Amino acid sequence: MRTTPRVTAQQAQAVANHFLSDRLPDRFTADLARQSDAKDVWLVPVILAYPFIGSLGKVGEILVGTSSAEIVSYTSTEKMKQVGQSIYEARQDKADLKWCIPR
Fold first, then answer.
1. Is residue 89 within 8 Å of residue 100, measured between CB atoms?
2. Per-residue b/e over 89-100, b at no fewer than 16 CB within 10 Å?
3. How far is CA 21 from CA 6, 16, 29, 36, 73, in A?
4. Which of 33, 38, 74, 101 has a beta carbon 3.0–4.6 Å from 9's, enabling a disulfide?
5. What is the pLDDT along the chain (103 residues), one digit of tens a residue?
6. Are 13 and 73 spatial neighbours (Cβ–Cβ below 8 Å)?
7. How many CB atoms sit inside 10 A of residue 58's CB?
8. Of 103, 48, 46, which Cα lies nearest the Cα of 74?
């Protein structure tokens, strides 16, 4: 029997973005949520993104409950910062990032 989640993918993404806005700089944002195989959580990728450039890559993940809208688990903010810095450094020599300053 499949149950319909009370929390939508869009709501899960909003919960994740609220969590991120309290803990990380604005270049870290939640991407599109998808349900886990067990259907009990939304898997919300966290990406490093810049205006006019878009996503540079995934830095972590936040799991949001499908029935409670509570964060169940997440990649540590320190790990997300480290991965984000690595992605930025790998791309900083390209012309599209020369004007961006990491925070």
1. no
2. eebeeeeebeee
3. 24, 9, 8, 24, 16
4. 33
5. 456 779 999 999 999 999 999 999 999 999 999 999 999 999 999 999 988 889 999 999 999 999 999 999 999 999 999 999 999 988 876 656 655 555 5
6. no
7. 16
8. 46
